[in-house]
Amino acid sequence: MEINRLSDVVKSWLYEAGEMVLEALNAPLKADEKSSRKDIVTNVDKEIEQFFVSKIIEQFPEDRIIGEEGASRNHDNDTQRTWLIDPIDGTLNFYKQKDYFCLMIAIEQEQGDSLGFIYELMRDEMLWGGPKVGVYLNDKRVSMVVDQPLRDGLININSGMVINNRYNAQQIIKQSLGIRMVGCAGIAIKEVVLGKQVAYMSYLQPWDYAAGRILAESVGIVVAAIDEEQLTLTKRQVVVFATPATYQEIRKIKEL
């Protein structure tokens, strides 16, 4: 499928899923713990992931699928396209606040055809695009990043990293204009892509950052593991999204 047509199809799925989420918010939510009381999954996470999986299988049955809530398909296939799904990113926010969450889909393809989608439903803001088509907030083209240094910008760092001063996080904060926390990777990445913040650093699974990575790199944001290992689809890593200047400063500070 041609890349612009594929973009339109996926956006239509996200808008349809958004309507499902809004309807679900009118009923009691059911939540189960995963790894801890702070790591939960709701009935809506599962329903939305299955909705996306069914859409993908219907149109692209040979494609590889990786989903946060257990969806896994065609891992051994020699396919050129992989879908990464985070049905509700910021699930704890979704469950407790009914806000500050998003829906994310990444399509990893060869030859620069990858696409990322971050849909912040409660603000009706869709950040989408890729290296070939550009990046858009709804219908407005997003400009290439302004390369601001750490001292001139706000940053977002995982709260646990700050409390335990992992990677010298407290010193990184002191060198910046200030810290903001939202508890949703997709929204935090969106702020960096839109130039509202200069960095985001957190412990992330592949589905947490895949869509954001495609979008961020398309506008000149550096996306890298803090330990400079290669990013992989197989494990949780500490990932940094930052302007080039800020990324270099974070690298230096975290070694102090």
Major β-sheet profile: 8 strands, mixed
Average of pLDDT: 94
What ranges have pLDDT less than 50 throughout 5 or more consecutive residues?
none
CATH topology of the largest domain: Fructose-1,6-Bisphosphatase, Chain A, domain 1
Number of helices: 8
State which percent range the strand residues make up.
25-35%
Distance between the termini: 49 Å
- CATH architecture name of the largest domain: 2-Layer Sandwich
Helix/strand-derived class?
A: alpha+beta
- CATH class assignment of the largest domain: Alpha Beta
Helix content: 25-40%
Q: Going by CATH, what is the homologous superfamily of the largest domain? A: Fructose-1,6-Bisphosphatase, subunit A, domain 1
CA-based gyration radius: 18 Å
Dominant shape: globular
Number of domains: 2
Helix-strand pattern: HEEHEEEHEEEEEEHHEHEHEEH
Question: Going across the major beta sheet, what is the strand order?
Answer: 4-3-5-6-7-8-9-10
Task: Tell me how many strands there are.
Answer: 15
GO biological process, one term: signal transduction
Protein name: Inositol monophosphatase family protein
Binding site for Mg(2+): 68, 86, 88-89, 208
Keywords: Hydrolase, Magnesium, Metal-binding
